[in-house]
UniProtKB/TrEMBL annotation:
<comment type="similarity">
    <text>Belongs to the protease inhibitor I9 family.</text>
</comment>
<feature type="domain" description="Inhibitor I9">
    <location>
        <begin position="17"/>
        <end position="85"/>
    </location>
</feature>
<dbReference type="Pfam" id="PF05922">
    <property type="entry name" value="Inhibitor_I9"/>
</dbReference>
<dbReference type="InterPro" id="IPR037045">
    <property type="entry name" value="S8pro/Inhibitor_I9_sf"/>
</dbReference>
<dbReference type="GO" id="GO:0042144">
    <property type="term" value="P:vacuole fusion, non-autophagic"/>
</dbReference>
<protein>
    <recommendedName>
        <fullName>Inhibitor I9 domain-containing protein</fullName>
    </recommendedName>
</protein>
<dbReference type="InterPro" id="IPR052471">
    <property type="entry name" value="PBI_I9"/>
</dbReference>
<dbReference type="GO" id="GO:0004866">
    <property type="term" value="F:endopeptidase inhibitor activity"/>
</dbReference>
<dbReference type="InterPro" id="IPR010259">
    <property type="entry name" value="S8pro/Inhibitor_I9"/>
</dbReference>
Length: 99
């Protein structure tokens, strides 16, 4: 797996999109309260994730993002960026038949 490009383009105020992932033991009440607080601090929540992991994506300033890392229900935060999957070993060419 590799990343291509850069994180989503920052706005004029330095805000960029980030994905915030909660720890697996975070309760739905904790998550809902946390997301409300993030919105109250000026972030724009773009999407919430509930199937593969508990989390959300949001447009926020880098300083705001760094402050969120201190909360005990956060597993990690990373820039929202394009990820592609490419084969580790390309398919080898077929060998020439022996004569």
């Amino acid at each position: 797996m590799s990343t291509t490009g850069t994180p989503t383009a920052p706005r004029g105020d330095g805000s960029a999109n980030y994905i915030v992932v909660f720890k697996t033991n975070a309760t739905q009440d904790e998550i809902s309260s946390f997301i409300r607080g993030v919105k109250d601090q000026g972030a724009t929540v773009n999407h919430t994730y509930t199937n593969a992991f508990k989390g959300f994506s949001a447009m926020m300033k880098p300083a705001h993002m760094r402050s969120l890392r201190e909360h005990n229900i956060i597993e990690y935060i990373e820039p929202d960026q394009i990820v592609t999957i490419s084969p580790a070993n390309p398919t080898p060419q077929a060998a020439e038949p022996q004569k």
